[in-house]
Amino acid sequence: MSEPAITIVEQVQFLSDQLIAWAVDHLNAKVAVVPNLEAAWATVSNREGAPKLLIMVDGEEARSNFAGGEVTGMVDRQFSVILSRGRGLKVDRGAGLTEGVGGGDPFLQLLDDLVEIVRSLILGTEKTIYYRGFDHFGKEFGMLSDSYRIRFAVGTLRPMYQQF
Question: Which residues of 71-81 are buried (b: 16+ CB within 10 A; e: fewer)?
Fold first, then answer.
């Protein structure tokens, strides 16, 4: 018996549910879903001082290594999770990366923990997250922020809709 198909909404909701407790415990932040890079940048850029955790659907690609293979319904669905530390009050802005701020964990430790949480999730038909890496968020706009973007993909069977 094959695994059931899963929708984009189901995957985003599951991802959000899995990250909420961690975001509250470690960042005192909410999890938000954003529709695109511009909205993510606007969210990270506003309200200085507040940490943020954002989820974004980056797209999907049909998985086919042969002509006509896309009819199988298998896709690699791509996601990003953006972790923003907000602004601290330290003069040395880099200190929070390795020392922490206000008794919290160092930001790079939080990033490392979040990467491992994302890698351990089961979000799709396949039981593996295809971790693509992380990088500074904002370089798409020629800017850098105190944020990192974790990129990953999930092998998923698309739901087959009835024809009308």
Answer: eeebbbbbbbb
Q: In this structure, is residue 30 part of a structural domain? A: yes
HSE, CB side, 13 Å, CA atoms: give it for residue 54. Answer: 28
pTM higher than the cut 0.90: no
| pLDDT, tens only, 55-76 | 999 999 888 776 665 667 788 8
Q: In which domain, by residue range, is 79 found?
A: 8-157
Supply the CATH number for residue 91's domain: 3.30.2000.10
Listed residue (23, 127, 47, 119) closest to 79, CA to CA = 119
Q: Residue 23 domain-assigned?
A: yes
| pLDDT tens for each residue of 1-54 | 356 778 899 999 999 999 999 999 988 888 999 999 999 988 888 766 678 999
CA 118 to chain centre: 8
